[in-house]
Amino acid sequence: MEGERDALLNKNKALLARSVSHAQDELKSFRTWLKWMCVDQSDGWTAFLSWSVFVVLAIVVPCLSHFLLACSDCDSRHSRPYDTIVQLSLSTLAGLSFICLSHFVRKYGLRRFLFLDKLCDESETVRKGYTNQLNRSLKILFIFVVPCFTVECAYKIWWYSSGGTRIPFLGNVILSDTVACILELCSWLYRTVVFFLVCSLFRLICYLQILRLQDFAQVFQVDSDVESVLREHLRIRRHLRIISHRYRAFILFSLIIITASQFASLLMTTRSTANLNIYKTGELALCSVSLLAGLMILLRSATRITHKAQAVTCLAAKWHVCATIDSFDTTEAETPVSRVPVNQVFPVTSDESDADDVGDEEDELDNTKLVPSYAYNTISFQKRQALVTYFENNRAGVTIYGFMLDRTSLHTIFGIELSLVLWLLGKTIGIS
Q1: pLDDT score of 327 more than 80
Q2: Which interval of the chain is the signal sequence (predicted)?
Q3: How many domains does the chain have?
Q4: Nearest-CA neighbor of 283 among 140, 84, 97, 76?
Q5: Which of 148, 273, 302, 398 pairs with 410 at a CA distance of 20 to 30 A?
Q6: Residue 31 belongs to a domain
Q7: Could you report how far apart the first and last alpha carbons of the chain are, in Å?
Q8: Are 211 and 125 within 8 A, CB to CB?
């Protein structure tokens, strides 16, 4: 008895040790990345350095680039008529991302913000899946940023090397152009990475909740009691509310800023006097691609987790139906009646061929498999019905100030955006 107790205590200590932050834990790469990007605010000195770098790279350098390097008398290749939209869009989103990230890290700490302090309460499957995704998150960040930065480098190097500016503020034209080019590239990289970093963290947090929902779906495959199922679902709903509360302002303002940026770009490029070519609009197109990619990460992560959370209702209803049918079959077995075999009415097809068509869309939450009878044989009809009713009236998901961010919301956003685009095109180029 004492041996089992000691083993249980040692196991609990090992799990609790994961919730304590230390220098060599799974967040080591994230902390290193935050320090290199100068967004670490763990003490007074790093906070001062972080804000100083932000002011220089997100405000000062873009302003100097726009007002001092704007070439009004340049040829058609080197003029930058859309630089205002590019600089305002990147700096505004970088400012929003930096303020939100600073608030998150300062108020919650990186470990608590990523829900790693609660990971000791999860199953081994959830812990391993989340740790693997944590290690992949920075790679995903590079996948989005590196191609755009490569194109930006090529454009800036061409612009400066081909005579875009001739302001020898360091006494030498070549040295001045080199320094200005490096500063502009650092500013662009800093603003873009800060925005994508916050988007990637949101995607990572949503992935944890998806893992938990998939693990939660296992309760319908085993003999579970209704109270434990209800408690676990309430815990997941609470975490989803926490995520919504933390990220709602960032998602809303990102959507507004990016929408305003795209409409301003559309208005400028569809004017009758606009002279469009790759040299003038290339940087504007690159900025739009970067911003829309970040917005896609946010909306896709939010709608995906909402879809998975709402799929629990379908799973519970299927669980209830299978249990009800099984109970009626057991009752009616004492009075045999003549019935047509189900296989003759609804022919059974091969599950393997269907699985190939579905691909990765099916998981523990979304599938067409029947629930085994041992998963509900000890639960009464009234309890199952009450649980299904609870799921139907308490849909979980990511919300923005009370509005559920699901696929229907995406359709609504798309419809509004399309209407505004058509209205704007009707005012500029006469589309009716």
Answers
A1: no
A2: none
A3: 1
A4: 84
A5: 148
A6: yes
A7: 82
A8: yes
